[in-house]
Specification:
The chain is mainly α and 68 residues long. The chain has helices at residues 12-23, 27-38, 45-53.
Length: 68
């Protein structure tokens, strides 16, 4: 046996996740569906460009009255 060989270690968290996946095989698919619902959105590039052009520059200190 090599001095560098170590027994295989898995953390409690890893064991918990693997156990959850065994109990509920549809878990990953449900997570992906939830992500798609909340995060994976189609972006309208034209609308984003218009929003950027409509941006009004903000003065350095917003509560100060404008001095001309």
């Amino acid at each position: 046996m090599s001095i560098f060989a170590r027994p295989h270690y898995t953390s409690e968290i890893t064991n918990f996740i693997e156990e959850m996946k065994e109990k509920k095989p549809t878990l990953e698919a449900e997570q992906r569906a939830g992500r798609a619902l909340l995060w994976d959105k189609h972006l309208d590039r034209d609308a984003l460009e218009e929003y950027g052009q409509a941006n009004v520059p903000q003065q350095p200190y917003v509560y100060q009255t404008r001095v001309k």
